[in-house]
């Protein structure tokens, strides 16, 4: 179970205030291959981690672009997964690389949502700037694992929080993206990276 916290203020009163503060954990199986956050794409305009699981390559769970597009995804727990469903990570990657505004994109996703296993998706245009809901997601299937998976930082033998990310966007459009990632499948080894850039005007 992943978790996202964010605060958004499109018009901060102070120059020192942030328009956006976002903090997120990605919980995933330790053996699932992924790349740590870095810029990618033809113009190096998208900053995100990348899923490298066979058949799901190129998807991501959280990212931001220099054009001010931000998207984040959490999975929705359900009793049975459709093994033939499309990779949910492509929903984030497609928004970050598209020219669609967030409302149009979310309308498109709502029409195509049945092609994926359950998910929650946040999509935003920054230049326009145990929980009962979790328990209801899987009912009898989910309740036995809530004590393990509903923590802010999940730590189980083969599954848990692999990445923690904080994105700050200040009043001038300066972005600071800091991520702490588990190295390989060893929950005792971590690496922290920070990227900074300014949103394009």
Record the SSE blueprint.
Elements lengths: L2 E6 L9 E12 L4 E7 L5 E6 L10 E4 L3 E7 L13 H9 L4 H11 L6 E7 L6 H7 L7 H4 L9 E12 L3 E9 L7 E9 L3
Antiparallel strand pairs: 1-2, 2-8, 3-4, 4-5, 5-6, 6-7, 8-9, 9-10
Describe the overall structure.
This protein has 201 residues and is of the alpha+beta class. It has one domain (3-198): Penicillin V Acylase, Chain A, CATH 3.60.60.10. The protein is built from 4 helices and 10 strands, in the order ββββββααβααβββ. The chain has a 5-stranded antiparallel sheet, with no helix packed on it. The chain has a 5-stranded antiparallel sheet with strand order 3-4-5-6-7. The model has no long low-confidence stretch (mean pLDDT 86).
Structural class: alpha+beta
- Note the overall shape: globular
CATH superfamily: Penicillin V Acylase, Chain A
Helix proportion of residues, in percent? 10-25%
How do the strands line up in the largest sheet? 1-2-8-9-10
* Strand segment tally: 10
Cα Rg: 17 Å
Strand content: 35-45%
Would you state the CATH class?
Answer: Alpha Beta
What count of structural domains?
A: 1
Most strands sheet: 5 strands, antiparallel
Q: Poorly predicted ranges (pLDDT <50, ≥5 residues)?
A: none
Number of helical segments with 4 or more residues: 4
Could you name the CATH topology? Penicillin V Acylase, Chain A
State mean pLDDT (0 to 100 scale): 86
Organism: Bos taurus (Bovine)
Pfam families: TANGO2
Protein name: Transport and golgi organization 2 homolog
InterPro entries: TANGO2 (IPR008551)
């Amino acid at each position: 179970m992943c978790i996202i916290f964010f605060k958004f203020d499109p018009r901060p009163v102070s120059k020192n205030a942030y328009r956006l503060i976002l903090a997120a954990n990605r919980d995933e199986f330790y053996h699932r291959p992924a790349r740590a956050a870095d810029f990618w794409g033809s113009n190096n305009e998208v900053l995100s981690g990348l899923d490298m699981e066979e058949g799901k390559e190129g998807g991501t769970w959280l990212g931001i672009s220099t054009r001010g597009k931000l998207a984040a995804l959490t999975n929705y727990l359900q009793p049975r997964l459709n093994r033939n469903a499309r990779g949910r990570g492509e929903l984030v990657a497609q928004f970050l690389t598209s020219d669609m505004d967030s409302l149009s994109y979310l309308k498109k996703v709502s029409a195509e949502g049945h092609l994926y296993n359950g998910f929650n998706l946040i999509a935003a245009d920054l230049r326009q700037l145990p929980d009962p809901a979790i328990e209801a997601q899987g009912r009898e299937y989910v309740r036995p694992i809530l004590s393990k998976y509903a923590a802010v930082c999940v730590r189980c033998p083969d599954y848990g929080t692999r990445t923690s990310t904080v994105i700050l966007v200040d009043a001038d459009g300066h972005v600071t993206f800091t991520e702490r990632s588990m190295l390989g499948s060893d929950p005792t080894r971590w690496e922290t990276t920070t990227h900074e850039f300014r949103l394009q005007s």
